[in-house]
Design brief:
Layout (H helix, E strand, L loop, with lengths): L2 E5 L6 H12 L1 E5 L18 H6 L2 E2 L12 H18 L2 E6 L2 H9 L9 H11 L2 H11 L1 H4 L7 H14 L3 H7 L11 E4 L3 H17 L2 H12 L12 H7 L5 H25 L5 E3 L1 H14 L1
Parallel strand pairs: 1-4, 1-5, 2-3, 2-4, 5-6
Helix pairs in contact: 1-14, 5-8, 6-8, 10-13, 12-13
């Protein structure tokens, strides 16, 4: 079974390339996109079309409701299930998307967690009723680890509390004693290298297209159904529309802000992709298809 990953900044052409490759190597596709995982967030996430989704079997798309929590742990469980399906169906696998942090977690792995009985879980649930107090406790015990966690991030605070209550160790000490093990090894990773000016134009064009496809209506429906509280409702493309609906900006400013914030995200993605993976292949979109197919034929 062959596996490969295609990454790149938003609007760089990853999805179309992944579909081309998957068709040629008889593969399924696993999306690593922090928004496409959600049902009903279609325009904002720039999901593949229904035609594309029907042409190649995709995983990691339309899995959760917008008010459900998504994490690295959930993604890794999803990957393991997809791997079983690929083996059962004798398919190869193309991993593609812009949330490369999830790919990094596959390559580097996650540390195991201590055994937790019901008493530990109960004590943690009691502590979580005073979230900020629990955060301060953990911050005093393990400042280095907790500095990376927001004081309102109940999911990660709960995880840190569970480690502390179950093991008696701070999270930093626990992870030091229980280093992560790679979940996937020797994975070829191909990164789309695109010039910033070209990317800005693509992002601006895509932002305008999103508006024409019903962006504002989609966000209105999401807000009415799920409120503004879920983490997914704080995504680029949604917060700007909410500002427009609140009368803070006009429609032109809304689209400009979506383009600006998306371009800023793309810059962060480019930096991450080029610095966080060893042995990555960087090439322009028009060169990558041939490079990928040649590398697979050499295996």
């Amino acid at each position: 079974m062959k596996k490969l990953a295609i990454i790149g900044p938003t609007a760089s052409g990853k999805s179309d390339l992944a579909i081309k490759i998957a068709q040629q190597i008889d593969a399924y596709i696993l999306s690593i996109d922090s928004l496409s995982i959600y049902k009903e967030i279609d325009v904002v996430s720039a999901k593949p079309s229904l035609t594309d989704l029907n042409a190649i079997k995709h995983f990691g798309i339309n899995v959760l409701n917008p008010d459900e929590y998504f994490s690295v742990d959930i993604f890794i469980s999803l990957y393991k299930e997809v791997l079983k399906t690929c083996k059962k169906d004798s398919k190869n696998l193309v991993i593609v998307g812009g949330t490369s942090f999830y790919l990094k977690s596959l390559v580097e792995g996650l540390s195991s967690l201590p055994a937790m009985d019901e008493d530990v879980k109960h004590r943690v649930q009691v502590r979580l009723k005073e979230l900020h107090k629990s955060y301060e406790l953990l911050l005093n015990l393990d400042e280095k680890y907790m500095q990376k966690i927001d004081k309102n991030d109940s999911y990660r605070i709960e995880k840190a509390l569970l480690i502390y209550e179950a093991s008696g160790l701070t999270p930093s000490e626990w992870f030091k004693q229980n280093p992560p093990k790679p979940i996937i090894e020797n994975l070829p990773i191909f990164n789309i290298d695109v010039e910033r000016d070209v990317l800005r134009k693509r992002i601006a064009s895509r932002s305008q297209k999103m508006l024409e496809m019903g962006l504002v209506d989609e966000v209105c429906i999401l807000e009415r159904k799920y409120s503004r509280l879920p983490h997914s409702m704080k995504s680029i493309g949604i917060v700007e529309v909410l500002d427009f609906l609140d009368g803070k900006v006009d429609k032109k400013q809304m689209i400009e802000l979506i383009s600006i914030h998306t371009a800023q995200l793309a810059k962060r993605q480019q930096t991450f992709n080029k610095t966080q993976f060893d042995g990555i292949v960087n090439a322009r979109l028009e060169e990558l298809e041939e490079l990928i197919l040649n590398s697979l034929s050499e295996d």
